[in-house]
Structures are given as structure tokens and as C-alpha cells.
Amino acid sequence: MIKYASHYLLPFLIIISFSLGCVSKKKFTAKESELLKCREQAEWLSNEKNEALSRITDLESVQVSLSDEIENLRKNMGDALRQKEEELKAKEIKLNELQEIIQTLHQKVEKLRSTITKAMENFKTEDISVFIKDGKVYISLSEKLLFKSGSYKVDPMGVDALNKLALVLNQQPEINITIEGHTDNVGTDFSNWDLSVMRATSIIRILTDKNVTPNRIIAAGRGPFMPIADNESEEGRSRNRRTEIILSPNMQEFFDILNGKSE
């Protein structure tokens, strides 16, 4: 009976053993494949880590470089700002100096106008007018005060007025003087031009005889070309026949500051 059972059980046991062996091999192969994948993944992660570290190093280097650039920009901006501030301060100082000079010039011109007006107070206002124009003192003298019609010889009353003016001018040696002769439009332009020039030089002779230095004086003949009234009427022509003495303050200090020559 036992023999009979063994005969039937033996094949069955062989089959079971074979089956168990096959299962164990499959599991081993699967585990081995899984381990291989893990190793590959670990290697990929390691490569990714190294690449990430390399990127971090590069970024840190860029950060340091950018920090240096920012610091340099801040320094340069600070230097540029300080330079601009210094330039603005220098311009402000220059502007203040110019304003002071202009104010001083205005005061001098006004004082000169007042002094000349007082010196000429004994003459008729229709014969002499003193006014400020474009920062200069203008003394307008009528033909009736200075000359006979068509003449360039100064009358005695005119000489008296010019002598009084010379006294003021000698006290103002820094003032430049321009003598301009003007006529009406009666006659030819060139004859009037000649007359206006000769009248201007006649006045210069009187002033220089009273020690007004010649290098301060300019003579100019305007002829009929700068009228102040209509030449159609006798009154207008009379106003146009005039001599203007233009007194200009010395602007050299002003120009020196403009050109950066001030100390």
C-alpha cells in the first residue's frame, strides 16, 4: 500500500519542486532588474545633482560679478553726482557774481544819468534829454543847441554844455563814449552823412580839449538813416537833427566772468 502511494506521489513532488524553482528564479530576475533600474536612477540623480551644483556655482559667480558691477555703478554714480553738484555750485557762484556785476552796473548807469541831468539842469529840456536805453546813458542834444543849420561849428551855448559834460566824463574814466550825428532827410543822403560825421568830430575836439581821453571816444555819422520822428513835418525834422552822446559802462569784468577768467 505504501509502495503504491510512493509511486504516485513522487512525480507530484518533482513537479512542485520544479515549480518552486521557477518562481524563485523569476523573482530574482525581477529583483535584479529592479536593482538595475534603481542604480540607473541613482546615477541620473547624481548627474542631475552635479549639474545643479555646477549651475549654482555659475549663478554664484554671476551674482558676485553683478554685485561688483552694482557697487561700481553706485561708486560711479556717486562720483558723477558729486561732480554735477560741484559744477552746479560753480555755476551758481558764477551766476551770483554776474548778478552782482549787473546790479552794480545798473547802479552806476543810474548814478551817471542823475549826475549828467544835474550838470545840464540850466539848459532847456527841449534842447537836452538824458535817458537810459539798453543799459547805456543817452544824451540827446538838439541841433538848435549845438549848430546853425547846415554847419558843423559848435555854437557857444553848445560849447558850454559840452564843457560841463566833459567835467562829468573826466570823473568817470571807465565810461566809453560814442558820438553819433543825425540829420533830417532834406538834401542828399551823402551830404547829410558827411555833415553828421563832421558834427560828431567837432564835438570830439571840444571834449578832448577838456582832457577827455581820445581812446575812449568813437565818432559816428548816421545821416538821415535813424530818424526818431516823421520827416514830413518841420517839427519831426527838427527832432531828427540831433547829436546823441552814448555813454557805455565798462563790461570787461562781466565778460571775464562769462569767459571763466575771474579769479
What name goes with the CATH superfamily of the domain at 103-255?
OmpA-like domain
What is the molecular shape?
rod-shaped
Report helical residue fraction.
55-70%
Q: By helix and strand content, what is the structural category?
A: alpha+beta
What's the Cα radius of gyration?
54 Å
Quick take:
This protein has 263 residues and is α+β, with helices and mostly antiparallel strands. The chain has helices spanning 2-119, 143-146, 156-170, 189-209, 234-240, 252-258; strands at 128-133, 136-142, 176-182, 217-223, 242-248.
Structural features, described:
The chain has a domain at 103-255: 60s Ribosomal Protein L30, Chain: A. It has six helices and five strands, in the order αββααβαβαβα. The chain has helices at 2-119, 143-146, 156-170, 189-209, 234-240, 252-258; strands spanning 128-133, 136-142, 176-182, 217-223, 242-248. The protein has a five-stranded mixed sheet. A hairpin with a 2-residue loop joins β1 and β2. The longest helix is centred in the first third of the chain and has 118 residues, at 2-119. The chain is rod-shaped and about 150 Å long. It starts with a helix and ends in a 5-residue tail after the last helix.
Structural features:
263 residues; alpha+beta; 60s Ribosomal Protein L30, Chain: A; 5 strands; rod-shaped
